[in-house]
Specification:
alpha+beta
Length: 206
């Protein structure tokens, strides 16, 4: 999901401080700086996808985020990534259309938990006869069939209310909600100043 952060020294004073330090100490400072930046960036991203920018639902997106730090000689790289399937769609936006069907079945109402997480999909509903008991003991019937089937007829005869569980759409457009791009840009901007501060602190104590 994210490009690695790489130590690039562009400030003249930082370059001078690096030049005056042993290579081992320089690498130690670089590692500490990248570690601090990565921890702060990961925290910001998780906060953004857990309520600040996106609605927190199942928590799956936040749990999928991982970060790594690699050091090869004088270069330290930090990477933050995610395995969450919808991450790119949320970041850049886009239009979702059905691949093999005519309609997208979007869960609504009783097909969602209180946090907005899908409780079941339309195929599961149809295979199960379209009856799903609630915590209160009632039953839901999805209104996605174009004609009344046995399940809907039986529900009416039993006195159950018909509740819409899915809405049918041919496509859904998701707006872009940039989280990763801004967070990584803040990290890149903060890294040189952090490096200079750490180096200055070390040169004063050694």
């Amino acid at each position: 999901m994210a490009d690695p952060l790489t130590i690039r020294i562009d400030d003249a004073e930082v370059k001078r401080l690096f030049a005056d330090l042993p290579a081992k100490l320089t690498q130690e400072v670089a590692y500490k700086a990248v570690s601090a930046i990565m921890a702060d960036t990961e925290r910001q991203i998780k906060e953004a996808i857990s309520g600040r920018t996106l609605k927190n639902r199942s928590g799956q997106y936040a749990r999928s985020i991982t970060s790594t730090i690699e050091q090869q000689g004088p270069v330290v790289r930090g990477s933050i990534g995610t395995t969450f399937v919808g991450a790119n769609l949320q970041e850049y936006g886009g239009t979702v259309s059905p691949k093999s069907k005519k309609w997208l079945t979007i869960p609504v109402g009783a097909a969602l938990t209180g946090a907005g997480v899908k409780r079941f999909d339309a195929p599961t509903a149809l295979r199960s006869g379209a009856f799903f008991p609630t915590k209160a003991g009632g039953r839901f019937v999805p209104m996605i069939a174009r004609r009344s089937g046995p399940g809907i007829k039986a529900a009416r005869q039993a006195g159950f209310s018909l509740v819409s569980l899915f809405t049918l759409k041919q496509s859904v457009t998701i707006p872009a909600r940039p989280i990763w791009g801004p967070a990584l840009e803040r990290a890149r901007q903060a890294l040189p100043a952090l490096l200079e501060r750490l180096l200055t602190e070390i040169t004063k104590t050694r």
